[in-house]
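DATA CLASS: polypeptide
GOAL: derive structure tokens

***
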Amino acid sequence: MTLCADAPIVMSQHRCRKTAPAAHYGESEDSPHGGSMKLIIQIPCYNEAKTLEIALNDLPKHIDGIDTIEYLIINDGSVDNTVEVARRWGVQHVVDFKKNRGLAKGFMAGLDACLGYGADIIVNTDADDQYNGEDIEKLVRPILNGEADIVIGARPIDDIPHFSKFKKKMQHLGSYVVSRAASISVPDAPSSFRAFSREAAFRLNVTNDYTYTLETIVQAGREKIPLISVPVRTNPELRPSRLFSSIGSYMKKSMVTIIRAYIMYKPLTFFTYVGLVPFLIGLILYIRYLCYLTAGHTQSLILGSTLMIMGFITFMIGICADTIASNRKILEGIQVENRRAHFGWMLQKEQDEIRNAAAGASAAENRADRQA
């Protein structure tokens, strides 16, 4: 089906089922399917025909506590036969971009599609078979037990052979910075091996075009979405990463993403610290002028006053930004309710179509029996 003119084309071989939002599913009756748990594993793909089948073969076919496992790929403008490989393997759902739109947009489109197909839990993994598929059970178990709404698979960074020493240090540093920004302990922030409850998927938003991994952690910390990490294993490298061309490029884009996310979710804190620097320097210069009170130190008065005004204006920008962030929270709450209503309506419509089709088939059988 096509959601709108600018939306990705979403293709499926199966009908959807009606669901309702739930924060966690520790007990079977918490499931929106009335005790039937549905897991959808999504894989973003961009020209992954060579490795996709290997990654799919590594995925679990059964997990205790999960009744249905389905698979979805996000075809991000691939020019090879990625979709054909997925269909031949048996992938039920495809989100199809005609043009490459980037990992972040593909991730969000996948979440929306999974919600539309009635997923109780959504797992995101990579098409290059970087992560051990058996560890998906480790990701979903805390959600099934009601311990978290987001679970991140933490790789053994120091034991990955194809990571250089510098890259390992940068991975640890990046995770530390993200943890501080989000006020959550995350040992492997860049990991894309994650599980989301239906409730978490309703609440997530990604605004940058680069990657979702860092921003969603900051958002989870700001929104108080329960998040934990579990240790997972990795597989040998099949191909180099295509997300960034160099460590320097990755660090630059990551830092911009972290700072931007921090400004979005904690603007008053950010601008207060930024404005405090020129204000304190200006205050010191102003005190210097007051101590001497001579014409020879007029420059201290001028520069000090200017810096103090700059610091005050920066603080006022923070207050305005904080007000905007408060409005953003209200809008996000409205968006969550709209998502629930939208996907609930979609699933109800699909269920009604299935019910009507079944009733029509039953009536046809009854007529055939009477004629016989």
Q: What stands out?
A: DSSP finds ten helices and eight strands in the chain. Residues 298-371 form the longest helix (74 residues). Residues 1-7, 12-30 have pLDDT under 50 and may be disordered. The two ends are 39 Å apart (CA to CA).
